[in-house]
Amino acid sequence: MSERIANDKLRGKVMSPEGAAQFVNAGDKVGISGFTGAGYPKALPTAIAERAKAAHDKGDDFKIDLFTGASTAPDCDGVLAEANAINFRTPYQSDPSMRNSINAAQMKYADIHLSHSGMYMQQGFFGQLDVAIVEAVRITEEGHIIPSSAVGNNVEYLDAAQRIIIEVNSWQSEHLEGMHDIWRMPQLPNRIPVPITSPGQRIGSPWIDIDLDKVVAVVETNSPDRNAPFKPADEVSQKIASNFLDFLEGEVAAGRLSYDGYIMQSGVGNVPNAVMAGLLDSKFENIQAYTEVIQDGMVDLIDAGKMTVASATAFSLSPEYAERMNDQAEKYRDSIILRPQQISNHPEVIRRVGLIATNGMIEADIYGNINSTNVSGTRMMNGIGGSGDFTRNGYISSFISPSVAKDGAISAIVPFASHIDHTEHDVMVVITEYGYADLRGLTPRDRAKKMIAIAHPDYRPLLEEYYERANKGKFLHTPHDLPTAFSFHTNLADKGSMKG
Amino acid sequence: MSERIANDKLRGKVMSPEGAAQFVNAGDKVGISGFTGAGYPKALPTAIAERAKAAHDKGDDFKIDLFTGASTAPDCDGVLAEANAINFRTPYQSDPSMRNSINAAQMKYADIHLSHSGMYMQQGFFGQLDVAIVEAVRITEEGHIIPSSAVGNNVEYLDAAQRIIIEVNSWQSEHLEGMHDIWRMPQLPNRIPVPITSPGQRIGSPWIDIDLDKVVAVVETNSPDRNAPFKPADEVSQKIASNFLDFLEGEVAAGRLSYDGYIMQSGVGNVPNAVMAGLLDSKFENIQAYTEVIQDGMVDLIDAGKMTVASATAFSLSPEYAERMNDQAEKYRDSIILRPQQISNHPEVIRRVGLIATNGMIEADIYGNINSTNVSGTRMMNGIGGSGDFTRNGYISSFISPSVAKDGAISAIVPFASHIDHTEHDVMVVITEYGYADLRGLTPRDRAKKMIAIAHPDYRPLLEEYYERANKGKFLHTPHDLPTAFSFHTNLADKGSMKG
């Protein structure tokens, strides 16, 4: 048995995944670790999926409600979705099989702000949690859990669950110990300020204390996280990154930012990684990150001495960088902090530290409303994730996207966003390869001009036509022509291109 | 000269409104006091409007950019709009003349969260403020300002402005002194937690300290606030109030609320007042309010011993109640606190105290997205006000509205909201006279069933028809039929009724 299980009582609970899965019953509400492919349980999901398939083969029902930190992996969300083992899922996912089930209305999915998801569990909005399944690097002598490569909603689920299953994964570096900062907000009506005033501050313990009597099983694993490689930055990504840096330089010139004061939040993806690569050669120094995931680009910035500290709730690294993190966790834990997602994404702290939020999008409309979730208003991609937490409360909020997708058939700028996740009241800057639209303090009419200017040239005349038609209406504060507001989307559906 | 001006230096600055208006130039950015018809300057707006009219008569330009706390009154927003004296206006208004100018695109209007408006000024997003014009109850010997019936963005504008004009209004009770709680958040990068953990806590001073060298004029006035009477609650309002109380009772039954733990936020209007009247006869005790305006119903709750404390940034009272407040301010200042709107509406404090947010709306769609601002997507009514501050961060967020307007020609529940100010991610409960839709933790499909059930019976079949048509699409997570998504609104435009 692994020396990583140092507590005697819990050593007595070690069993096979199949044995542990017997504690997960049909109809259970199950809260698991896992955030963007890091730190999810590696063995139980498959074992639960097998139980479900066996039950289904006998004609019995077997579905669970699954609560996570965020997205997981094919060997977690994927196997459970394929086994048709999930009734309800929240707060975020990005798995292809799961997405198909959701869009076929075969699985219920509630798309919730990541900072709210654990809190809703605490507040009783989801009912009683039955089981928590959490991956750990190690169990201490006292029975405390050292989380692995993600903290997510572990604390909330471990506190709320009636039964606990722990997976101890020896693939994860033991030197992650000391990187986590676990702090619990007292429950209503006793909430207090989160005592963080700068991204690098530690306020809690490096472990999670749990009720040992609730632990029904401990399972040993040795499996890697789901780490996907990033594509090298293409020309469009590099132009977007360059426009983003121009915007930052403009803020410095205007006296609203200093080269020594940039606090970064960044969504995941190739464009954000291009932005971080651009920062390597920029004048910005002592960059800090208060964000939800640590990406390759942040590791590079730390290595180059450009970033002093990165606070997040999880890793989202390429296989190469994940290996490096595992080898050198002892070094990186001086400059990386992993917190519960309720804290990494807490509106209070986000507003206080004054970060610049940068997230991707599906589309924006000419008035600056953003769709982050549903393609053409109906097809769920992943979910809102933490984009709302950071957009709403950041010092400056920005969205970055190529101006077109699918070889030009889809414009990222449309007359009316077909789903709205971030409203005109919250969106400050939108950036494409054609420039940036700084919408701060502007009226809808003035926003439209700026937004059309950063659309792809092929779409600018179509957007201008729409705006002119909208201006023939009676009310001109937010001009719209509702009968043709979704014409880009109906063109796409009918003719295969938003151009019609 | 009034004894209310106790500072010698400022006594030397007393002059006529016309004299003071000479310090306001064409093109100036002007920040004024005033929030929901309380505490706005009474003399300068008319004097500025007269200057503008005189300039216009000579063929000269004369417009200012006007920043307030929120809405003001006919003798402020009204006279300035009628004189065509405003170029740009933010963050909220409700004046009929101003609304017409905005919707005719003759005046620029930026609709901004009330908690963000003063902060944007501090952060330099609006450029340099030229003049602050602030109503006071009194100027102390040291030259501190005792604000009147609203605090609003006074602190931010007084700090930012190059020139200050003070109106000392002897209509306002001197006993308001002691009711205000003025606290400044240190500027980035030195922000700290707001040290409020319960609604009744005082953290600052009862006065605003200013740079006396910036004061260019002091004007004496004796004019009432704009206080509008409330209509007595009609049958529909009473049913909505009763459904809201049923919801609260359900939360108590579920263990998520106690009769001794209700913290109220309430938008302004007749339905909220009916809710407060309902609370008078309820089992709820020791109610607290952490809200933006003090309304008649809260005064009744305080008088009845049902409410222990109300924290807000301004009054919004009927003439009768305003008179009572002026007569008995000394008594009420034990249980009423007026704060800067950045604090009354601060996301951090709202989330911490755990309030239940209750606001009106123009329309909601079947998935729970809310339109608070633009009728049929294009006609600006007032603005988002503080509804986003409270909805996003409240323990529970709720919206209340009659199910129909204009004798049934307009449904408050529509297939697709024609403007979205609050997204599905933030909206928890929607209440009409037909019941409440508790949307917490539900998927879009399950939300649609609940929302259609609280629509007016005349509109339920039309909404069901839409939902069935939407379900013929390919993607069923958020079913929509985009070509007919705005059919209710186009029916209204073409045929005078959403029924078509």
Automatic annotation (TrEMBL), chains A, B:
Record keyword Transferase present = yes
Q: Where is the Acetyl-CoA hydrolase/transferase N-terminal domain?
A: 10-220
Q: Where is the Acetyl-CoA hydrolase/transferase C-terminal domain?
A: 324-466
Annotated active site residues, numbered on this chain, are 292
Q: What's the short name of a Pfam family annotated to this entry?
A: AcetylCoA_hyd_C
Keyword Transmembrane helix carried by entry: no
What are the GO MF terms of this UniProt record?
A: acetate CoA-transferase activity; acetyl-CoA hydrolase activity
Q: Name one GO biological process term.
A: acetyl-CoA metabolic process
Cite the entry's keywords alphabetically: Transferase
Q: Where does CoA bind?
A: 267-271, 362, 382, 386, 406
**Domain of life of the native organism:** Bacteria
* PANTHER family named in the record: ACETYL-COA HYDROLASE
Which family would the database say this protein is a member of? Belongs to the acetyl-CoA hydrolase/transferase family.
Q: What is this protein called?
A: Succinate CoA transferase
